[in-house]
Amino acid sequence: MSKRMHIMRPRLGLLLALVALATSAATAAPNVTFTTTPIGVGLFEYDLTLNDVGGPEPLSGLDILDANSVFGLTSGSTIGAPAGWSYFAPAPLVNELDYFSLSGASDIAVGASLGGFSFVSSTDPASIGFTFAVEAIGGTSSTQIPLPNAVYMPEPSTGLLLASALAALGVARRRSARRG
Amino acid sequence: MPTPYGPDCTDHGANCSPYDDGATVEESTGYTCQEVEADVWQCVSTRSCVDYHMEGGGKFLNEGGVSFVRADVSGRTGVNGDGQICDYDGILATIETFNHASNALANTVELDKVVFTDLGGGDFGAQCDGTAMVNGGGPVDITIDASKSGGVVSFTLDDIDTPQNLAGATGETGRADLSFSTTQAP
After folding, report:
1. Backbone angles phi, psi at B63, to 5 degrees
2. Which among B26, B27, B48 is positioned nearest to B36, based on CA atoms?
3. Are B161 and B137 in contact (CB under 8 A)?
4. Inter-chain contact B68–A144, Cβ cutoff 8 Å?
5. Chain B residues with CB-CB distance to A142 below 8 A
6. What is the residue extent of each domain of chain A?
């Protein structure tokens, strides 16, 4: 095995571990993933997907727990819900953004995912560590289902940029090692 | 201090009659001898006008599951100083509830009666009657009971005619809250 391969393996391993971690977080249990898009004037659009993967029942609700204190959301905010769903915005004394399915037909079946949950906030996702607290409501039990914090999924273009940067870094290191 | 508009009186704090030049009377008349400005005592009504406001909501739990609630009720009415506030006209209400167990969405609430009891220290009780649209149909006759006592909040919205609980129960600690306040109206 060449010296080059020894240098590459730990980095590749780290990358694969990160991918595996992200994959397991996205598939092992019901969870929320999200992307963000800067839309100018310091605002970000958050787009969320609720994944009912490995869950015991359909899902009929999604709560963003600190919607007012973290994202500054109020009844005047831009908030979107998928078809067949509606929401109650945060209000005085109520910190949560509560999404709910209007009928059993629009609940998220076990194994399925639903996007279309969105809101606009001035909170930079980097400032909250690219994660935030969420919770689901069971479609059969009508009770709360704790979820892990929402997981940030970079846009494909962001992923490509990151991969390109890592590749460039690897090439630079290889050249440097050869010279050395 | 009350607005001065009654006849002068001398028996400070006593029941009086505004129709008899502020004379002291034994029975309650709804008027007492009050200091309306420094050293000026007049026989004036014990009633005053207040602006009231109840707001809040959150997540409420019962055996059937979770309900989401948002409530904002306000208005202006006369009070007797007995801690109870009743209003039947011009009540402003924005109330929405969703019950996950029954998928019942109640909104477009109009109230024609509210009775608040101010228990002090932020505690209160409220009973409201009116109508609401339920899942886009109606209006249906509803009654609302809300309270806050010792940090525990409750809110129920019931269909009177069926009768049936449309939403609410006990607020989840830390994730549901209601407040009630009054201010003297000008």
Report:
1. -60, -30
2. B48
3. no
4. no
5. 64-66, 100-101
6. 29-163
Q: What is the ipTM of this complex?
A: 0.82
Closest-CA residue to A46 (of A156, A131, A140, A146): A131
Structural domain for B42, as ranges: 1-46
The CATH architecture one would assign to domain A29-163 is Sandwich (2.60)
The two structure tokens encoding residue A59: 């899902």
Chain B residues in contact with A143 (beta carbon < 8 A):
65-66
Distance CA B148, CA B86 (A): 18
Q: Which of B100, B155, B175 to substitute to test the interface with A, most A CBs within 10 Å?
A: B100
Instruction: Spell out the per-residue pLDDT of chain A, length 180, in tens.
Output: 444 444 443 444 334 335 434 554 445 699 999 999 999 999 999 999 999 998 899 999 999 999 999 999 999 999 999 999 999 999 999 999 999 999 999 999 999 999 999 999 999 999 999 999 999 999 999 999 999 999 999 876 555 666 677 777 777 777 777 765
* Interface-testing mutation among B103, B135, B148, B157, with chain A (most A C-beta atoms within 10 A): B103
Of B96, B101, B103, Cβ closest to residue A102: B103
- B117 and B169 in a single domain? The answer is yes
Tally of domains within chain B: 2
